[in-house]
Amino acid sequence: MADTPFGTLLWVAARPVLRLFICITCGYSITRAGFFPAIATRGAVQVVLNITLPSLMFSRASSALDAENDAAFGPLIVIAIIYMAIGFALSLSIKQFFWVPYRFRYGIFVAGGWASSCDITISVMTDIMASLPFDGVHDQDLAVTYVGAFCVIFYLTIFTCGRNLIERDFVGLDAGDGEVHGPWQAKRWKLLMVFSSRAKSVSSSAAGEKYDLEEGAYGDQMCSKDLSPQLSSLEHSQAVSSSASSTIVQHDIPSGRCDETRLYIDAEPHIIPASTDNSSPNQPRPAMRYMNFLGSLSSPVLLSVVVSLIVSRISAVKALFIPNVSGTNIPPAPDGQPPLAFVMDTAAFLGAANSPIGLIILGSALARMSAPRGRWTSLPIGAIGALAVGKQLIMPVLGILICEGFTRIGFIDAEDKVLRFVCIFVSCLPIASTQVILTQACSDTNATDHLAAFLLPQLILMSGVMTVLTAFTLNLLFG
Questions:
Q1: Mean pLDDT, to the nearest integer, of 333-344?
Q2: Nearest Cα to 60, choosing from 129, 146, 154, 119?
Q3: Residue bearing the bigger pLDDT, 405 or 153
Q4: Which of 133, 215, 263, 410 has the greatest number of beta carbons closer than 10 A?
Q5: Which three-class secondary structure state does DSSP give residue 183?
Q6: CB 30 within 8 Å of CB 36
Q7: What are phi and psi of 121, to 5 degrees?
Q8: Radius of gyration in angstroms for the set of CA atoms belonging to the chain, rounded to a whole number
Q9: Closest Cα to residue 423, out of 476, 348, 385?
């Protein structure tokens, strides 16, 4: 691999990406042609969640897992949590500095925190691991098992926390983009003024004006105390408001030493729905959230991982499914295979359909999204560009730095090339296709215009970024 030209590595990396986009195009085409309606897509999603993905996890993990790679699951879980935290921080920063559509005010956090960790990743891994310098079938099984850890965390969180955030976007009456965009521009201008004044105060302290700085800090504390009764009154007035249309409330705060705080609060728009009573039945109750979380714990994907762990740890049980298990003496079936080898064959047969079906579902979801033709200028270009750059350019760089740092301190095994490749690769994934499906389900009109605008640039960037990142990672691991 050290003598392999980088152009060859690019072709090896581009091949699975091309296959991926061909599958997505097939799903897009049959949906546009009317052969794959929405009800069929929902059925295909259930097939993936309850049949093909659990079968894939069982067939791969049961044979690949052993005591030697147990230590890999700790780093996998930590990496998954770190990537989600970085995504949430990215979304929060974007929402503070760029305007986000009202029907995407919570969806931006889902777009940043979750990514396509299953269908896209498994499709690429099964192709990359099948060729040199990896070890063919064994590394394929190991890579899919490692990706399964990300899948379990993904499905446990997206169908509880993620779904709740998406549902909140569609609670209450809609607020026009102008009603949100206008006050947001004022908010950004006020924030810049606040930051500018803060910078001036810092420079003055550097010049030696320590006394004035301490006096200003004391005045800010007194100001915050004076503001609390007014803010409490404001919250009370919002709770009892029942105006016929959405209203933007601005706060009148007396001038004084609190000018900077007043500027920030004036810039924050408070959009009051016309009626909060109508939206309350749509809000999920806490008991339902707990039930959804418990239901996700009994999902077939998680159960298949648990069963795979049990089978892989008990040699006598593993020998019933897999041949040539050391330390066992299980009589074979008449065909010379283990007695339950047909179960493993069936699971592998069903699991092979997981990646194609998942990518076809993604293409179908893209076909149902309304592309904002001719009105890109009315979209949140700043937020769209920032999220695309963050997930497709900044995240891969951070992923390389984090994974290499963990490798140097020994948290990630330097000899486990498959683990290092998986941990770096999942840092360049776009918005999850599951978010598209959940958004279409939560919206009464299946309106996903804003989500389409956020997703399409990421898919375009992904085709190049994923290829370069894969080639770079191969050179990093084997160069």
A1: 90
A2: 146
A3: 405
A4: 263
A5: helix
A6: yes
A7: -65, -45
A8: 26
A9: 476
Beta strands in 327-368 (DSSP E): none
Do 198 and 221 fall into the same domain? yes
- Token match 């003598």: residue? 3
Do residues 471 and 6 make contact, with C-beta atoms less than 8 angstroms apart? yes
Q: How far apart are CA 90 and CA 442, in angstroms?
A: 24
Domain co-membership, 457 together with 381? yes
> H-helix or E-strand containing 402?
helix 395-408
Tens digits of residue pLDDT in 203-240: 555 444 444 444 444 444 444 444 444 444 434 444 43
Kindly report the length of the chain.
479
Closest CA to 339 of 324, 321, 363: 321
Contact 138, 463 (CB under 8 A): no
On whether both 16 and 128 belong to a single domain, the answer is: yes
- Note the pLDDT tens digit of each residue in 120-141: 888 888 888 887 788 878 888 8
Alpha-carbon span 13 to 467, nearest angstrom: 5
* Judgement on whether residues 119 and 250 belong to the same structural domain of the protein: no
* pLDDT at res. 452: 79
Model pLDDT, residue 3: 63
Per the CB < 8 A criterion, the answer to whether 325 and 319 are in contact is yes
Q: Which two tokens stand for residue 370?
A: 């309304």
CATH of the domain at 135: 1.20.1530
Q: Which domain holds residue 28?
A: 6-171+283-478
Strand, coil or helix: 247: strand
pLDDT beyond 90 at 304:
no
| Residue 293 one-letter amino acid | F
